[in-house]
Amino acid sequence: MGHTAFLIIDMQNDFCLPGAPFEVKGAMEVAKKIREALQACRKHGLYVVHVFRYYRPDGSDVEITRYDKFVQVGGALIEGTKGGEIVDELKPIEGEYLICKKRWSAFFQTELDNLLKRLGVDQVVVTGVQTPNCIRGTVWDANSLDYEVIVLTDGTGASSPEVHEANLNDMKNIGIKLMTVEEFIKSLPNPPKDDLVEKIRNNVLKAKLESRA
Length: 213
Prior knowledge:
Elements lengths: L2 E7 L3 H4 L10 H18 L2 E7 L13 H6 L24 E5 L10 H7 L2 E9 L1 H14 L3 E10 L3 H13 L3 E3 L1 H7 L8 H17 L1
Parallel strand pairs: 1-2, 1-4, 2-3, 4-5, 5-6
């Protein structure tokens, strides 16, 4: 059986603080819920991965659809700036993993997939902001890469409750597990996992052996 990793996505000052250049409304309330889950994960020894993004000061690596906004706000999410730092409530501690991404998905052109496979992880718990963009992009890629996925409904957030709920519903409809932070904490140290890849392998092998009999 594989392990479960806890992912925290884009909980940086420039996304989360009131009045920040790319503020996601309500992000600091989400941070409080993530902190509850994070503390429980630390207690039970789950792998923790902090995912964040840095842009170059000249904007040369910003998404083409975000570039105008980046210029308008005078730059944001730049390495070495206060805005680029992870919010104080969720600061990484020694032994936790850091992944820097340049696009919506935490898996796109990063070492996250390699890291998780090396650690024997086959399930990820996704938290952070915001739901229709980096959360959804990460979840879709995780599903495509054969990870089982849990999304914490109150440990993620979007610009409005309507957008948040619509995207949660879309994810649920492709088979993603949805849990509240409270439900997730109560499930530790063994959050629900169906071992789907193992099930598929066993079924394929069984059918192959039966065909030879």
